Amino acid sequence: MPIDLPTIWAGIIAFSVLAYVVLDGFDLGVGILFPFFPERHDRDVMTNSIAPVWDGNETWLVLGGGGLMAVFPLAYATIMPALYMPIIVMLLGLIFRGVAFEFRWRTHRGSKYWDTGFWIGSTLAAFMQGIALGALVEGIDIADRRYVGGWWDWLTPFTLLTGFAVVVGYALLGATWLNLKTIGDIQQRARRRAMLSGVLLLVLIGAVSLWSPFINQVYFERWFGWPTMVFSALMPLLIGGCAFALWHGLTTDKHLQPFLAALGLFVLSFAGLGISFYPYIVPGSLTIAEAAAPDSSLMFLLVGAVILVPIILAYTGYAYWVFRGKIDPEEGYH
Fold first, then answer.
1. What's the whole-model pTM score?
2. Are 281 and 291 in contact (CB under 8 A)?
3. CA distances (Å), 62 to each of 13, 66, 91, 134, 167, in order?
4. What is the CATH number of the domain that holds 200?
């Protein structure tokens, strides 16, 4: 039986994207929450909580983007022209927040300006990721294996909704991360922000879920046809279970449970996207098999991925293990 290399690679890239979302999402969320913690000391503790891991989290973004270009060159060549603006703005946001993260520690007089930059960069990057996701869900106009849409096709009411949803979702991840890593007043305020953002995210997930099936006939058939309708019927129960775990953890002084529950909401939403998309990589226009590079290239790259991905997982897990536990409020980032 031949190996379905395009599907295997689609799974690897999907895993890379999910790993980026759940790992880099919480440190972007910490930046998004900066306006709710105006004191310099509080912000120092917040950035200390992500300092050991935030650079490594973005490895998965590089792997996902690079993998898409190498493994699905046709998809890369059609998606990128459609999303040049949001992707460029996202990258600028990530660059700016990285610079602001380092510079805020080098000055006290100007730290408030770099803190503002860290917040803007984090929020902008999250919002543009949501915009790009929404544009991909809505579909990209392709003819003769190239993008034929307009420059501003990515800007629609639906993409604005998904952009806002990602910002709120990352804020939830950031708040539950702070609940996990901090103590005292910061932890208490983080819990309140987590409760508010959690309620808002559930509303936004519901809005996106109700809107999506009517964007494309493929989505409608996928969610209300057999056997995938089983998952669509279970989805509200699974989302409800994560929501209850989030509420229970926040109201009973649990530290890890709310963070895992927030991650569960993201994983379920991502699984829903996968069910909606498969076997397309560009919904309604381009399948995984059509967009894939030759099998010889996929096999060559797969050998590298089999070696590289476990290494990334190992050093990522080791970093989180070494820096486990609560943040000492008196320690500083150097």
1. 0.91
2. yes
3. 10, 6, 11, 21, 21
4. 1.20.1630
Q: Write the secondary structure of the chain as one string of H (helix), E (strand) and C (coil).
A: CCCCHHHHHHHHHHHHHHHHHHHHHHHHHHHHCHHHCCCHHHHHHHHHHHCCCHHHHCHHHHHHHHHHHHHCHHHHHHHHHHCHHHHHHHHHHHHHHHHHHHHCCCCCCCHHHHHHHHHHHHHHHHHHHHHHHHHHHHCCCEECCEECCCCCCCCCHHHHHHHHHHHHHHHHHHHHHHHHHCCHHHHHHHHHHHHHHHHHHHHHHHHHHHHHHHCCHHHHHHHHCCCCHHHHHHHHHHHHHHHHHHHHHHHCCCCHHHHHHHHHHHHHHHHHHHHHHCCEEECCCEEHHHHCCCHHHHHHHHHHHHHHHHHHHHHHHHHHHHCCCCCCCCCCCC
Instruction: Give the mean model confidence (pLDDT) for residues 70-82.
Output: 86
Residue 71 lies in a domain: yes
Residue 223 belongs to some domain of the structure: yes
pLDDT recorded at residue 243: 94
Report the number of distinct structural domains present in the chain: 1
- Residue 302, token pair as written in the block: 């797969």
In a domain, 333, yes or no: no
The Cα-based distances of 55 to 20, 36, 68, 105 in angstroms read 11, 24, 21, 16
The domain in which residue 189 lies consists of: 5-322
- 239-255 pLDDT tens trace: 999 999 999 999 998 99
Instruction: Kindly provide the b/e burial profile for residues 60-92, where b requires at least 16 CB atoms within 10 angstroms of the residue's own CB.
Output: bbebbbebbebbbebbbebbeebbebbbebbee
